[in-house]
Amino acid sequence: MMKEIFFKNNSANRKSLGSSTEVVPTETTVSEFLEVKGKVLKEYTLKDVDPILSLVNVTVVSSGGKGYYLISEPSMSPDDVKVVGTIVDYVYSSMPTIEEDRGTFFSQKRKIMDYVKEVEEEMELVDNSLDVSKVTYFVLREMSYSGISPMIFDPLVEEIEVTSSEKPVTVVHRDFTEFFRLETNVRFSSERDLMRFVEKISDFGGRDVSIANPMQDFILKEGHRVAVTYGNEVSLPGTTLDIRKHPEEPFTIVDLLRFGTITIPEAVYMWIIAEARKFMLIVGPTGSGKTTLLNSVLMLLNPNAKFLTIEDTPELKLSNEVWVRLFTRTLNFDTGKEIDMADLVKLSLRYRPDYIIVGEIRGSEMEYLVQAVSTGHGGLTTFHGGNVEDVKTRIVSLLSDTVSKEFKNLLSSVVVIKNTTDYLSKKQVRKVTGIWESVGEGFEQIMSYESGGVSLSPQLKDAMNLMGWDENILWKEVKRRGELLSFMVKRNMSSYHEISSTLSEFYLYPEAMERRMEA
């Protein structure tokens, strides 16, 4: 069987650090696991994140119908462990700049490497020739996220889950979605160590978790969303942890077209409806890519427009120059007032934005968003649901009769995105399965993933009229925008800057953009 990485964290916060800090060495030999007939699917290091992470090797293995994510780290001698513990103690007691800059651990690498050499001399370990890079890695590892640090820093890992100290940590890997989750060779030594780690990571997110407050939902400095439960107050058999990682560079519309998440006709339809400032809703279950789709559509809109986004946790990333970014605040000991999404939607009207975007609608804020959209502001948001019927039955039930009628009149389109399974590869694929338009008391599907093109639907016709177009201009725009999307996919544009500059040229210098596409 494979070796498992057990790790302890006796440093929930700075106060609990000191001589009791313990760093447990870890090492994994994948060959031992392969003895039970495993097959290597992928092997890589994390050196592209930072050169110091070239010491970490990741191997994805398939065995017995299950997938495994195996981490190999350098072995640690007793002297190594002693030095790492000494430096971690010093960092938290004497180098506050590192603690204050938790989200950029690697920026402190040079300071730590210099200090490793000093400690080596003071502890009279010169003859043993400490590996400075290795010790520095383990210091950074303990300063950040201990044994799960490689998963945090691995850009291919989308989610990290801990359901019990008695079970291995699992991850969702972008390249191996056919397994749903990969079991890792990392686990917590005990329930107490898991509780301490949850205390530490909650502290990183500016939250306090305890027996009195056993649930927390927060965002880390890197943008990752974290949900935790503490002890067995609300979860059995004990503490749990889920980290949904936020990519440093969110997927663009080009990425989604390449992945097959959305088709060009669907993207063109959403683009025109959004630009006409009609009220559009993106619906899907958890993890289906609602926010990613919303973000990619917003990037298509005129970069000179004024955007105002409202979120529980800041996830949207726009390239617009005029972007007001608001997010909620929960009540805690440091703040005197809780600010919810309804408060922010009311405030948003004071900014006179062209578009009001709410990251996700859950309750009463829908009423204020409806009122905001009714004043002529474009409105886009997401809603947790499985189909269009959820919109009718669940959202309408949140609203008063008067606002409910207004909501039905204002809502133009519902875009449904789901996790689907590819029949041949068995991989999980996020896909826009259909687009529905609001018609009377119900909805009518006007596009599906298999649709051949854009048709003149009632809401598209209304969008045409709102923008002062006739049918000739509408079809010209449909063709032009489809060609631009195809052009960007063929050029494999991936950076925000490149896509943003291309769209700016599309809006401001259309003739020049057409010549560029023809070249």
Automatic annotation (TrEMBL):
Pfam families: T2SSE. InterPro entries: AAA+_ATPase (IPR003593), P-loop_NTPase (IPR027417), T2SS/T4SS_dom (IPR001482), T4SS_GSP_E_ATPase (IPR050921). It comes from Sulfuracidifex tepidarius. This is AAA+ ATPase domain-containing protein. Belongs to the GSP E family. One of its GO terms (molecular function) is ATP hydrolysis activity. Residues 276-421 form the AAA+ ATPase domain. The lineage of its organism: Archaea, Thermoproteota, Thermoprotei, Sulfolobales, Sulfolobaceae.
